[in-house]
Amino acid sequence: MIEAALMCLALNVYFEARSDTMTGQYAVAHVVINRVQHDKFPDDVCSVVKQSRNDGTCQFSWYCDGKSDRPREPYAWAYAQMVAADVMLGDVTDITLGATHYHANYVRPYWADKLEYTVTYGSHLFYK
Question: What is the pTM of this model?
Answer without folding.
Answer: 0.94
